[in-house]
Structures are given as C-alpha cells and as structure tokens.
Design brief:
By secondary structure, the chain is mainly α. The protein has helices spanning about 5-15, 25-35, 40-50, 60-65, 70-75, and strands at about 55, 70. Helix content is about 65%, strand content about 5%. Strands 1-2 form a two-stranded parallel ribbon. β1 (about 55), α4 (about 60-65) and β2 (about 70) form a beta-alpha-beta unit. The N and C termini lie far apart (about 45 Å).
C-alpha cells in the first residue's frame, strides 16, 4: 500500500520537473515599468514566455499588460 509520504514525494517530483526559471532582471523590469508586484510580474513573464494569455481578474495587471492579460470571461468569448 502506498503511503501518504510516498504519494507526496511523487507529486513533488512531478511539479519540480515542470518549474521554469524566470530571469530576475526581466521580472524587476516588468515590475518597475508597470507598478505591479514582482510576484505578479513572474506570472506575466511566464505567460509571455509560453506565448499564452494570462487569465486574471487583477485590475492592475489587466491595465498594465493589456496585450497578454485577459479576464477568464473575455478569454472564453474568444
């Protein structure tokens, strides 16, 4: 029988393999230009890297990054 610890370790390994390092200088530049937090800008940078929309309800992000950030409702409308 698989223990909770074994399952946790398996899940941790799967997540760790999917991590993407985002350059700190890019994050800080986005934060400085936009006024958004560096935490939020990590998601913006990742969306840009993946060429994917950033789905959010955060009004500051939507305003600062209109080419990448979109509300889920707008995205569903296509």
């Amino acid at each position: 029988m698989t223990t909770a610890l074994e399952l946790f370790m398996i899940a941790e390994e799967l997540v760790t393999r999917s991590e993407t390092h985002m350059p700190s200088d890019l994050i800080l530049a986005l934060a400085s230009e936009s006024g958004c937090s560096s935490y939020d800008c990590e998601f913006v940078a990742l969306a840009e890297l993946l060429n994917a929309p950033l789905l959010t309800y955060d009004k500051q992000i939507l305003k600062a990054f209109p080419t990448i950030a979109v509300t889920p409702g707008e995205w569903l409308k296509g």
